[in-house]
Amino acid sequence: MSITVFLVDDHELVRRGIAQVLETEDDIEVVGEAGTAAQALARIPALRPDVAILDVRLPDGEGVSVCRDVRSSVQPPPACLMLTSYSDDEALFGAIMAGAAGYLLKEVAGIDLVDAVRTIAAGGSLLDPNATAVVLERLRKGDDPPDPRYDALSPQEQRILNLIADGLTNRQIGAEMYLAEKTVKNYVSSLLHKLGFARRTEAAVYAAERRRAGGRRRGA
């Protein structure tokens, strides 16, 4: 049986290039593609591919969020392979938390990409051990001094930050807190601004580090 693959990247030429590489293989079939997170979330559940190859950054969101959403809503969930143009510890952490099976740079050779698809389709993992170790080491750091940025957050923003760290999407946060998705989006924008972050994955890492530090203090 062929391994079915869905491609998500906002650059058409990149999608075409990946599809061309994969479809030279007899056991791999590209069944769909999308250029935005919204398109991916609409199409992947209907096609139910074995593997989803996701660009980390999309015009209307993040591949990590798409990974989290489809893995929680599609049965059986696709194995997700994150592709990015550059190394990013925050995005890697987000990928790990979202349940991605692999994380590769776009400079990967075609034959290695094919091998990666086969590996994760078979249930394997391709999260680079060295890169993963860097992220985990950040979480093992000693206690940080009090952060006035966190204290500047409202109680509502602090709760939303914790839910972001739990891997919830804006829609899921809204359901949890009985808020409109647009309201949650506004809160997220506000807390990112106060914390000095550009992406929610940075906020997730920050919140996770605070939790770890708090756990060490309580266990001391």
Describe it for me?
With 220 residues, the chain is α/β, with parallel strands linked by helices. Strand 6, helix 4 and strand 7 form a beta-alpha-beta unit. Helix 9 packs across helix 10. It is globular. The N and C termini lie far apart (54 Å). The C terminus is likely disordered.
Low-pLDDT parts are 216-220
> How many strands, what sense, and barrel or not for the largest sheet?
5 strands, parallel
Backbone structural class: alpha/beta
What percent strand? 5-15%
| CA gyration radius, whole angstroms | 18 Å
What fraction, in percent, of the residue positions are helical?
55-70%
Mean pLDDT equals: 85
What would the keywords be for this entry?
5-stranded parallel β-sheet, single chain, alpha/beta, 220 residues, 7 strands, 15% strand, two-stranded antiparallel sheet
Describe what is shown at a glance.
The chain is of the alpha/beta class and 220 residues long. Helices cover 56% and strands 15% of the residues.
Helix and strand layout, with pairings?
Elements: E1 3-8, H1 12-22, E2 28-34, H2 37-47, E3 51-55, E4 57-58, E5 61-62, H3 63-73, E6 79-84, H4 89-98, E7 102-105, H5 110-121, H6 129-139, H7 148-151, H8 155-165, H9 170-177, H10 181-195, H11 200-219
Parallel strand pairs: 1-2, 1-3, 3-6, 6-7
Antiparallel strand pairs: 4-5
Helix pairs in contact: 2-3, 3-4, 4-6, 4-11, 8-10, 8-11, 9-10
